[in-house]
Amino acid sequence: MQVMQGKQCIQSLKAYQPGKPIEEVKREYGLSHVVKLASNENPYGCSPDVWALLALERGNLHLYPEGTAPLLLEQLSLYHQIATDQLVLGNGSDEIVHFLARAYLEPGVSSVMADFTFPRYEAVSMIAGANVRKVPLKEGVHDLAAFSAAITGDTRIVWLCNPNNPTGTMFTHDELVCFLDHIPAHILVVVDEAYAEYVVHVDYPRTVSLLAKYTQLVILRTFSKIFGLAALRVGYGIANPLVIEQLNRVREPFNINRLAQRAAVAALADTTFTEQCGRRNRDLLERFTLKLQEYNLPYFPSQTNFLLFSTGACDQELFSFMLARGIIVRPGSALGYPGYVRLTIGNAEEMQYFQECFSLFLEEKSG
Ligand SMILES: *Cc1c(COP(=O)(O)O)cnc(C)c1O
């Protein structure tokens, strides 16, 4: 049978392999309780205020949402002290990554990213037919000097993930400023800050404050992580109004649905909830890293709600071991780190259970 093939530039692209969904593991293993520590979701759910606002949409689901999401834009502009024309909303920040590629990448140009980082930057570049240049991480951290060196005449976008997924590491404000000082204004510098609200490091870049000086800067944020709204798909970009205007040209008219617009407004306002999530995360993350030190297992210092660490064994083996016990983790070999695992920091109970199973695993390996 003759079936028409897609574009040449997507032939080496593979469909995204997400962390295994809880429902699938329950079915496959006949388990009633499954813990997912694989996709960096918030183990505490979302703000309880979200539900009250969602109820306002009862009876409205047959109506298109407001295409520009004015309430959400206004709240975000107050939150970041910026103008609404510096903001673009996406169906997840993933979608804004797509907008950037749609608006700025094409065959004959290149985009530059870390090896290893969030895989969507590479995917969207390939879909646009652009070349991809990768810059190795230095001890798990973006090597910004090497990034400067990798930029050539055809470069249109530089993707920086800070803190980086999957390593959880970050570069500082001064490092970013020094980098930006060396980048020509026609090259976009995209800083993906999906985990910004988890960061405790005092020198984390104050990126919004740099927008006035560096017109090529694009900041990405999301409601999928600390705000706990991954299911509803809302992310946003902050940039120069002229860049935002380009992105809006390639945006679908109703990309943020009614429920998502309401939920995001409520989630943004509940700072008590997000601060509590941040504190609990930090506490459990630090406790777990102490355990790893006891086990003498290397890890990358994390500013996020996940941790990439060495299992001291084959990561697929650990993955299967955990799956059989109802825990889903992300094996490092899928992320460029064979032998490692990327673990989302769960709640206290989940971390306790993971630790028990992990001790068991290590005993079996050494025994
Ligand atoms: C989770 C994550 C996102 C968020 O994606 P959404 O589409 O907003 O859910 C973006 N970038 C990185 C690096 C992430 O880890």
**Helix/strand structural class:** alpha/beta
The distinct ligands, each listed once, are: pyridoxal-5'-phosphate
Give the helix level as a range of percent. 25-40%
Our estimate of the beta-strand percent is: 5-15%
> Strands across the major sheet, in which order?
2-8-7-6-5-3-4
What pattern of helices and strands is seen along the backbone? HEHHEHEHEHEHEEEHHHEHEEEH
The low-confidence parts are: none
Radius of gyration equals: 21 Å
Mean pLDDT: 96
Terminal Cα span = 54 Å
Largest sheet: 7 strands, mixed
Shape: globular
Number of helices: 12
Question: How many beta-strand segments?
Answer: 12
Which terms would index this structure?
globular; 15% strand; alpha/beta; binds pyridoxal-5'-phosphate
Q: What would you note in describing this structure?
A:
The chain has 367 residues and is α/β, with parallel strands linked by helices. Helices cover 37% and strands 15% of the residues. The protein is built from twelve helices and twelve strands. The protein has helices spanning 22-29, 49-54, 70-80, 93-104, 120-127, 144-150, 173-180, 241-249, 258-269, 271-295, 315-324, 348-366; strands spanning 35-36, 87-90, 110-115, 131-136, 155-161, 188-192, 217-222, 235-239, 306-310, 327-328, 330-331, 340-344. The strands form three sheets. A seven-stranded mixed beta sheet has the order 2-8-7-6-5-3-4, with helices on both faces. A hairpin with an 8-residue loop joins strand 11 and strand 12 (340-344). Helix 3 runs parallel beside helix 9 (258-269) and helix 4 runs parallel beside helix 5. The N and C termini lie far apart (54 Å). Bound molecules: pyridoxal-5'-phosphate (PLP). Residues 40, 92-94, 118, 161, 165, 192, 194, 222, 224-225, 230, 235 line the site of pyridoxal-5'-phosphate.
